[in-house]
Design goal:
Blueprint (H helix, E strand, L loop, with lengths): L2 E8 L7 E7 L6 E10 L2 H7 L9 E2 L3 E9 L11 E4 L9 H4 L17 E2 L6 E2 L9 E5 L3 E3 L6 H4 L5 H12 L7 E5 L3 H12 L4 E6 L2 H10 L3 E4 L5 H7 L6 E6 L4 H9 L1 E9 L13 H6 L3 E4 L7 H13 L11 E3 L4 H9 L6 E4 L1
Parallel strand pairs: 4-8, 11-12, 11-14, 12-13, 14-15, 15-16, 17-18
Antiparallel strand pairs: 1-2, 1-4, 2-7, 3-5, 3-9, 3-18, 5-6, 6-10
The chain binds adenosine-5-diphosphoribose (APR) and zinc ion (2 copies).
One zinc ion binds next to loops.
Length: about 350
């Protein structure tokens, strides 16, 4: 029988979010119901609310979450009731051309729960990124649940479900940052800071943080940045070159998602270096570069989807490193809030006041 829970709904374009009763069906084949314990507030939730993702209102927001599996449907073997899990929004299919080639992190056919959660009047909800975790419970595909060590605090674990994983993965998976590398990160919000923490973890020798906001640069230092550049005052390309023996960084991670910062990343890397675009551009943005520079500078220009992560491989490993004190995921949690404070958290996020507000349930 469907259960009634409280959830944060975005009813229509730019309307304030509100708490509504949500009906969560029992899990069908391949599905799981998860009792949500924590869910971070991400820019993507705000984009949904603003109508920037699509028009499938009403949305059940929230997608950076951790919780306990309450029930599973037929055929689910990877997780069972009682498991502590982090939710991911790319449950891999195992059968598409990417999965068959052994590159499941590129899976082209990821999936979500088949059944719909609804309002009490039967209106179907669109869960943000197929998760919808600003709710006491949510229904997901079982493959969206990754079991991790339950010793970790839920408000910390949930962060790996989205932005923090995207940033760490941009550095260690996509950028392949390794011991002794020089790295520059442009844009030091949650994603950029995670790229800094990931580079630090991977043994980068020099990590240059670039932002237009001094407060962000201060935090970046605590995440592992060895140098900071305020690109409002200083040309970041010149500064990065200066800090890398005149050459440029081995890996430059663009965590803003704009043509001008991408160009900075392109020119701030060493010959044969790597640019990783993890910031998400908007549809109207265009990039113009001399093709000869693209050729002549060699190396790799990559984009990073969700940090090219494989949840089953990366989530448990990063949680273990956190529990061992080698990766301070707790530093990303600025504040914990209640379910009815999401609207306020959007405002604080918009003003750049927080790295992450996390709803705890
Ligand atoms: N140059 C340098 N830094 C900039 C610039 C710029 N021109 N414009 C903005 N920034 C900085 C902001 O000051 C902020 O610190 O980029 C950072 C962006 O951080 P957040 O807004 O907190 O965003 P975040 O959650 O980190 O996501 C960054 O990655 O996943 C994508 O959609 C996400 O495109 C977004 C990007
Ligand atoms: Zn696949
Ligand atoms: Zn997100």
């Amino acid at each position: 029988m469907a259960q009634e829970v409280r959830g944060v709904i975005a009813p229509g374009k730019d309307e304030p979010v509100r708490i509504e009763t949500v009906l969560v069906p029992d899990p069908g084949p391949g599905e799981a119901v998860v009792r949500v314990q924590a869910c971070g507030v991400c820019h993507t939730d705000l984009h949904y609310k603003q109508g920037g993702i699509n028009d499938d209102f009403p949305f059940l927001l929230g997608h950076e979450a951790a919780g306990e599996v309450e029930a599973v449907g037929d055929g689910v073997t990877d997780v069972e009731p009682g498991d502590f899990v982090i939710l991911n929004w790319r449950a891999v299919c195992g059968t598409c051309r990417a999965c068959l080639r052994g590159r499941p992190w590129y899976c082209f056919d990821t999936h979500n729960a088949k059944q719909k959660m609804t309002l009490t009047d039967g209106t179907e909800l669109s869960p943000a990124l197929g998760i919808g975790a600003f709710a006491e419970k949510t229904l997901v595909a079982a493959g969206q649940c990754t079991k991790v060590d339950p010793a970790v605090a839920p408000q910390v674990a949930g962060l790996l479900g989205c932005g923090v994983m995207a940033g760490i993965g941009a550095a260690i998976n996509t950028g392949n940052v390794g011991r002794g590398d020089t790295v520059a990160v442009i844009g030091c919000g949650g994603v950029g800071d995670a790229a800094i923490a990931g580079s630090h973890l991977a043994g980068a020798a020099r990590i240059i943080a670039v932002d237009i906001d001094d407060r962000k640069l201060e935090t970046a230092r605590t995440m592992g940045a060895t140098h900071t550049v305020n690109s409002r005052e200083t040309d970041p390309v010149e500064a990065i070159r200066e800090l890398t023996g005149g050459f440029g960084a081995d890996v430059v991670i663009e965590a803003v998602g704009r043509p001008e910062t991408y160009k900075q990343a392109f020119y701030a890397r060493d010959l044969a270096g790597t640019v990783v675009l993890v910031g998400v551009p908007t549809p109207e943005m265009k990039l113009e570069l001399p093709l000869l520079d693209v050729f002549g500078r060699g190396g790799a220009l990559k984009s990073s989807w969700y940090g090219d992560c494989l949840p089953s491989r990366d989530f448990p490993m990063l949680i273990d490193l956190h529990l061992q004190g080698r990766l301070d995921l707790g530093a990303f949690v600025t504040e914990t809030i209640q379910l009815d404070e999401v609207e306020k958290a959007f405002e604080r996020m918009h003003h750049g006041d927080v790295l992450r507000s996390v709803v705890v349930l």
